[in-house]
Each structure stands twice: as C-alpha cells, then as structure tokens.
Design goal:
single chain; alpha/beta; 12 helices; about 45% helix; 8 strands; Rossmann fold
C-alpha cells in the first residue's frame, strides 16, 4: 500500500492510468475511495491520483488542529513527494475549498480546477448540518454517524436503489474512520473556513464550478457565488444527484468533468 512520508506523518495514495495528472480530492470524509465510481473512467484519459487526507482512511490519524489550509498544505506536500509539478484538480466540497486555496497560493501547480459542490463560508443552514453530524459522532458513536451521512450526501432514490452496496461500504468506512476526536476536529476546521479571502484575490486558472440542483448541503447559490468571483469560470448544473453527484450519477459527472479537462488539454473551447 503506497504511502508518502511527509514530515512526521504518512499520506496514503493511489495512482491509476497514465498521462497528464489529475488529482481527485474528496471532501469531509477525506477518503480517496470516495472517487471509486469515477477512477476507471478518468484513468482512460489521465493519470489519476487519489489520497486519504491526514486523519482519515489509511493515512496517519493525527490528533492536530485541522483546517482547510492545513489540508491544502498536505496536498501540495504530497504533490512534491510524488514529483507532480502540475495537475488538474477536481475537488468535491472540502476538496473544492482546498482547490480555491491552492489556486491562490500555488497557481503555478494547477493546470485547471473543477470546484464541485463546494462553498465559500458556512451559512447558518450548513453550520447546523455539520454541527448535527458533530453531535451524532460524539453522542451516538461512529456507526450512527456513518449511517446518517447519506441523508446529507445522497438522494432518496439512490439510497433505495443501492442500499446493499451502501451498507457494505459503510462497514469499511466504520472500520477505517478516525476516532471521534479527529473527526470533530476536521468538522470544526471546515466550519472555520472562510473562502471569501481567497476568492477576493481572483483565481486566474481555467475553472469549472458545478453542483446538482438538488444539493441541500451546499446548494446551487453557493456555487454561483464561487463562479461569480472567478473570471471566466464555466458552470454546469446537474439536474439531480444531491451533494455526492459524482457517486449518484457518475456517468454524467464523468462526462462533464472529463470533457472540461480535455478541453484544457487541447486549448479549445468547452461545450458540455
């Protein structure tokens, strides 16, 4: 199992395919396996790198003060360790917030950016959702927390159609999920994030901002706010799929995201 030694911790990663590197970055859950429904298709066209954030999955479960900035620094250090000079970055939710930071602090490291189902600053509604998840893990335990997550991420029809697969996946998540203290620290770090201070400095990298129209955790106005702050940003709104649209309608997500990345590779206009 490949792990990159970075400072005093290790980051688990996987590489699939060949070509220009694409970094697929997960959200709060932090596990690269979030992208399993997408890796095979992306790796037909690109070298795909996924990783587990520090504190999650098979990476070091460090008890530190987490922040989106710290997660971004870990990501850049992983790129350094893997000798990835430049990448296309596709970030989901917190991964999209990491992309915003990277685009401002390390613009020379990104070829393009896909910000998917992300946000700039937690609204009262989003704060309540995350605080509820914090309370669940603290008072009801990891299993209850994991079983509640699909309510925020997926649609009713996807859960109904995929309940057996979901339950098997949940067993693995429960086995590898960091202890409650670490997960709470990650939630607190995400709630503290204020992306407006990055977007105010203007991102000058080809960017696609996308989400599903039925995303209740980071609804469409969040993405519209991000897109409005990025000169020339492209947008795409999936008709359905909720917060985890890359899992609920992976074929459509793959088509949209890959076509955008390929357009950047060929320096041509993009039409989804």
């Amino acid at each position: 199992m490949p792990k990159a030694k970075i400072d005093d911790f290790e980051i688990y990663y996987e590489i699939h395919g060949t070509g220009t590197p694409v970094l697929l970055v997960p959200g709060l859950g932090g596990a690269g396996s979030y992208w399993n429904p997408n890796i095979a298709e992306f790796s037909k066209y690109f070298k795909v790198i996924v990783h587990d954030h520090r504190g999650t999955g098979q990476s070091t479960h460090a008890k530190i003060q987490y922040s989106v900035e710290q997660m971004t620094d870990d990501m850049i250090k992983l790129m350094d360790a893997l000798k990835l000079e430049k990448v296309h970055l596709v970030g989901h939710s917190t991964g999209g917030a990491m992309g915003q930071i990277a685009a401002i602090k390390h613009p020379d490291r990104l070829l393009s950016l896909v910000i998917y189902a992300s946000w700039t600053k937690a609204t009262p509604f989003m704060r309540r959702c995350l605080e509820m998840r914090r309370e669940l893990i603290l008072k009801s335990g990891i299993e209850a927390y994991v079983k509640a997550v699909p309510i925020f991420l997926h649609t009713y029809w996807w859960v109904n159609e995929n309940i057996s697969k979901l339950e098997e996946t949940e067993k693995e998540i429960i086995r590898t999920l960091s202890d409650p203290e670490i997960q709470v620290a990650r939630i607190d770090g995400i709630l503290a994030f204020d992306g407006t201070k990055y977007l105010d400095r203007k991102i000058n990298i080809p960017t696609l901002v996308c989400c599903a129209r039925d995303d209740i955790l980071t609804p469409k106005p969040f993405s519209e706010e991000i897109a409005a702050a990025i000169p020339g940003a492209k947008t795409f709104w999936f008709e359905r799929g909720a917060h985890a649209v890359s899992q609920t309608v992976p074929e459509e997500f793959n088509r949209v995201a890959i076509s955008f990345l390929e357009a950047q590779e060929k320096s041509k206009g993009w039409n989804p």
